[in-house]
Amino acid sequence: MLRTGLAAILWSMVTALVAFCQNQPLPQPGEEPIRTTVNVVLAPVTVLDKHGNLVNGLQPQDFRLLDNNKEQNIKVDVAFQPISMVIAIQANSQVEGVLPKINRIGSLIEPLVIGDQGEAAVLAFDHRFRVMQDFTSDTNKIELGVKKITAGSSSSRLIDAVIYAVRMLHSRPPNRRRILMLISETRDKGSEGRVRDALTDIQMNDVSVYSVDVSRAFAGLTSRPQAPRPDPLPPAAHPLPPNVPATPNTVMQTTGGQGGSASFIPLLVEIFKDTKSIFVDNPVEVFTRGTGGTEFTFAKQKALEEAISRIGEEIHSQYLISYQPNNKEEGGFHEISVDVGRKEVKVRTRPGYWLASIQK
């Protein structure tokens, strides 16, 4: 009888623990991040001709991928995979004047971006994270989720919102493409997490990031007046200290740009190494370029709709390469390059990955 009673108590405790775990909310940015073992590297590839048009119709045998200059045995998937997308929209006072334009784009997501097999969730952020609509394939629900977003506080926890969105995507089935679409300014205001935290989560969950950037100048003209900042000048307005060379990193630190495409990888390396002095004025650019995605900007409604349409076209025209690295013994950052054996084309993919996150 004692054993029966003890077993019943233990079973009740286990059942309660399982129920508790299942009902827990997503971890907040700043908490312990989700970590998974990664054995396969995914590299979505976009191919453009010299006029910037998407190149379709390539076959698996056309592709060659180098990982740290070592050719890999790759699998090229030319078939469309269903999409899971989070649309993360800045919803603070700074973009209040732009929100009416953004509120009208929800109906475009299903036909232009995710397709009839896709699903999308809508996340609004300022100092909070509001899931306006969880993952759904219902166009009307997506449209309503975007339409009911209103402006909030003056904070814009962009980096934390990216971490939160990636953790939402983490819950989706592994056979789906995971896409994050950011509609926001490019600067962060108030995040607890760091760019490195977000990049690590993005890499571990194979998320591609696309952004439609709200012009800072346009947002400033349409936002509610705010108290003046102690230093209103952007970083680019401040000259470098005397005798400091204009290296790729200092260019990035002072302008938010790369100072040439070759310098973007050194920046990623510094971020992953957790260099304390690294400063990233434009984290959105790091997230998009670091995953092979693209940035678009808009000021008018038509430009916003065209950007969303272009993102959809690109996603649906990509080739998805996967492989198991044959050089896992090489630690640090692994640079990826893809060739399709054609002249006058531009091939874009993720620049690489940090091997510290990959385990044998």
Descriptive account of the structure:
Helix 6 links the parallel strand 8 and strand 9. About 16% of the residues have low confidence. The chain is of the alpha/beta class. The termini are far apart. The chain is globular.
For the report, how would you describe the main beta sheet?
A: 6 strands, mixed
According to CATH, what is the class of the largest domain? Alpha Beta
The helix/strand series, from N terminus to C terminus, equals HEEEEEHHEEHHEHEHHHHEHEEEE
- Return residue spans where pLDDT drops below 50 for at least 5 consecutive residues: 6-11, 13-24, 225-262
CATH architecture assignment name of the largest domain: 3-Layer(aba) Sandwich
Question: What is the C-alpha radius of gyration, as a whole number of Å?
Answer: 22 Å
Provide keyphrases for this structure.
360 residues, alpha/beta, Rossmann fold
In short:
The chain is of the alpha/beta class and 360 residues long. Helices cover 31% and strands 22% of the residues. Strands 7-6-5-8-9-10 form a six-stranded mixed sheet, with helices on both faces. It has a four-stranded antiparallel sheet with strand order 4-11-1-13, with no helix packed on it.
